[in-house]
Here is the input.
Amino acid sequence: MERAGDAAGTEHAPDSAAEPVIELEGVAKVFDVRHRAGRGLRRERREVRAVDGLTFTVPRGEVVGYIGPNGAGKSTTIKMLTGILNPSAGRIRICGIDPTRERTRLARRIGVVFGQRTTLWWDLPLRDSYELVRRMYRIGTARYEANLARCVELLDLSALLDVPVRQLSLGQRMRGDIAAALLHDPEVLYLDEPTIGLDVISKSRVRDFLRTVNAERSTTVLLTTHDLTDIETLCRRVMVIDHGRLMYDGGLAGLHAVGESERTLVADFAHELAPVTVEGARFVRAEGPRQWLAFPAAASAAPLVAALAARYPLVDLSVREPAIEDVIARMYGQPG
Here is the structure.
């Protein structure tokens, strides 16, 4: 299948010489769903193709954003990559291992974080959960202590080690889950919505940590998220999946260009004004002294901010990123 990123002439070109650690070829996953037929008790069976013919590779050390709307097939893909689900068709290799046949062997080579499900023991202190992880993965003492110390330092977990997991906030628990997933030095890390529901400070800490781990250990990361800032901060490459199919594979700038997506600048002025005009942006709407301006997502907001500050009594402003769903809807001419 031709990659949409290639067709759009995007900047990303994976290094074909790099060793692929994630390989999918024609992968599909079909579920049988039963639903009531008419008003009677009879139920009919129909097939739902959650994943439909995925083919891609990810080289060692790359951080890839794997995005799409709800129900697109992202979590189903990750479950097949980890061996939780078996594909209905196609071929998968992770670090040269078939997840379907050698799930236990693969588990020692990968780490997984599901944003809405914890892998920690609910009633145990964080420290005890990590000790159980050490025993499960048979991590040597010196290696375990070094990895734990590094995670505790970078994720600011020192004050939380003796706190039961059930008493941790969502942001604290998420940082704890990410540390647990990395104690055994996985070659591949799957992150399914790792910053969902986190505050700004927790998100920043998680992103900084993942950047450091990737730089220091060449850990390959596949990241699913609805937060474009996660993608912009961590990923050079992004893949879009929609209705189970890979619709785009390339750089983030290319995705914005294909989807003609826009960011929104929300400006608060000292008093109510007529619609402001500034080159590179279009007026969207106004509400009292607040006005909304849209500009291309790939463009910098700095010139717009400078122009507004120079010509108008600007009090405050913020920039809002486009939603993933909006980008995809624009890409394929769907109503937003």
